[in-house]
Amino acid sequence: MSDQVLLTTTVGSFGKPDYLQKARNANARGKLGESELTELERKATEEWIRRQERLDLDILVDGEMYRGDMVAYFAERLDGFRLGGLVRSYGNRYYHKPIIASKVARPKPMTVDWFRFSQSLTDRPVKGMLTGPYTMLDWSYNEAYKTRRDAALALAEVVRQEAEDLEAAGAKYIQIDEPAIHARPEEIEIAIEAMGVVTQNLKAKTVSHICYGDFAAIYPKVLELPVDQLDLAMANYGYRWLELFDKDPFTKELAIGIVDVHTHETETVAVAAEGIRKGLRYVSKERLLPHPDCGLKTRSVDESEEKCRVVVEATKLVRKELARQATPA
Amino acid sequence: MKTTVIGAYPKISDEHQDLRRALHRHDRGELDADGLSAVLDESTRWAIGELNWAGIDVINDGQIRWDDLLAPFARAWNGCDRGPLERFYDNNTYFRQPVITGPITTDGKTLVRDFEFARREARGDLKAAVCGPLTFATLVSEDSHYRSLEDRTLAVADAIAAEIRGLGAAGATLIDVEEPALVAHPEHFAIARAAMERLATAGVPLALQTYFFPADPLLDALAAFPIAQVGIDVRSRETHVLEKLTGLRQTVVLGIVDARNTRVETERELVGLIEAALKRIPAEYLWLAPTTGLEYLPHDIAVEKLKALVSAVHAIGGVKA
């Protein structure tokens, strides 16, 4: 894989199989025990690792079979949080929005066992997956800290501990997602400062996923976010963010979203490949990583798989073109 | 002083999840459109009942049928489709961005049936609501028809004015125009004002509701808007607006209960804000409200917030409608 260009990856979550969804519902109603649920989560995780290998993705994820919401999962495991009642995010989708009720602390690692388990199943690298401190703050109600900066920096400390534990467990890639980073563009300094706390001691490659918001409002300032790779939704936006790179060149590795994740239908391989070609105008093939726009947890297993298949097929098509161009006629 | 609410009320609670289940069944083809509509009506009845029970003087219908602020209009109007999902300002709440495909037209009856239903269910005063033209126009993802933001905003304003006429004919006597874009983009205030002038031609009293962002840079300009009420959020961000309310000629709807944070305000805190406002404006020109729609909160907290609002106003001697 090391010689390969246009490494393919995904953003983190996949659709959960029906048996797991049913088990989670049963668990929520108190009709299925934790250990039985965990067994099914492990089964689904292994299925997704095998599926990713079969699809020939290069950098894998554990698929987050054991997570519901990307903030609530951590909030449930950190001291200082309590979960509030249901709040709607869009359409008919609801989540338990966390409340920062007192000072936060991490009693023990939250994702490391899952990382170890999934990495043990494959020779391909599996990313450690965390939610960034600014997003944890922005997607929670803050009752405990006087300022948003205070809360973000306190959260950064617990995310740092988790990231360093993932690295110690062997993670070569650590992704710290900040999809809320453009929620308040005037606060981007806070997000940058908090991410600096998280990544300051890491040797692993660091990635941050950003999606669904006004990326233009934080560009080029976001290039100061202390991570190696930015992972951006692009297909959903018709690749318009790329035009920003004309004026201020993109300086990091770019994981580029080439299929929309909020539709049941998937773009054709030809359309997705065109997305990669657009990205190549701005970022070299060694530093461009095709992937779906966002996590696939809102899609079914089949839809998730189809979207990944299109990403890989499109990438292989463009790799062939690049190889032909590199070989003199 | 009167109490009121703005925007959407929680559509479900931990105990009352009929609508959530009905929408899932509708998605799976197990419930037809009429069946879903009946559940939407029932949920609207529930929300209205809760707002009445909380003792809010001037309620709305809770916008139970609205997926987001723009959805009813983007769905109903000609020349407009619903496009990609996008975050709604600085919330972890998403909406579908409108896509403009041609000239926007409407029969002006988009909200009439829902208003008439709510009118039958509500005890006491009921107001209607529409999306602000600048908010709609600035949140469009693509526009293949209008040439500028101003053209688009004014075209949206004409369509909204038609909706306001329809609501007025159905008996609405006060209509919220939810316009967060005005305070998010104060630089467009001249366009927003031209749009409001078109809405005012419908002849129904309007309440311009701004929220999420401080109104400080716009206070002087707002005084000249052709509106009966202006809503101002004093909780979401740092603001000195309470010290500058004197210049406004309209009734001020002051958002004093933070609809985006679960910490329930103390009576003392709220009374302090009301007293600060009363130093600048007479009580008959002051209404009190949550900062924005209570749907940003879990239902149990939304109920607590309503109670806090009503008890603070009663503590200071507000009159019930």
Mind explaining what this structure looks like?
The complex is a heterodimer of chains A (329) and B (321). By secondary structure, chain A is an alpha/beta fold. Chain A is built from ten helices and nine strands. In chain A, the strands form two sheets. In chain A, strands 3-5-6-7-8-9 form a six-stranded parallel β-sheet. In chain A, strands 1-2-4 form a three-stranded mixed β-sheet, with helices on one face. The model of chain A has no long low-confidence stretch (mean pLDDT 95). Chain B is of the alpha/beta class. In chain B, α1 runs antiparallel to α2 and α6 packs parallel to α8. The radius of gyration of chain B is 19 Å and the shape is globular. Chain B starts with a strand and ends in a 5-residue tail after the last helix. The chains are: A alpha/beta (329), B alpha/beta (321). At the A-B interface, β1, β2 and β4 of A face α1, β3 and α11 of B.
**What is the average per-residue confidence, as pLDDT of chain A, rounded to a whole number?**
95
Give the termini separation of chain B. Answer: 9 Å
Major β-sheet annotation of chain A: 6 strands, parallel
Structural class, from helix and strand content of chain A?
Answer: alpha/beta
Structural category of chain B is: alpha/beta
- Total of helices of chain A: 10
Strand order in the largest sheet of chain B: 1-12-11-10-9-8-6
Quaternary organisation of the protein chains = heterodimer
State the main characteristics:
heterodimer, A: 329 residues, alpha/beta, three-stranded mixed sheet, 10 helices, globular, B: 321 residues, seven-stranded parallel sheet
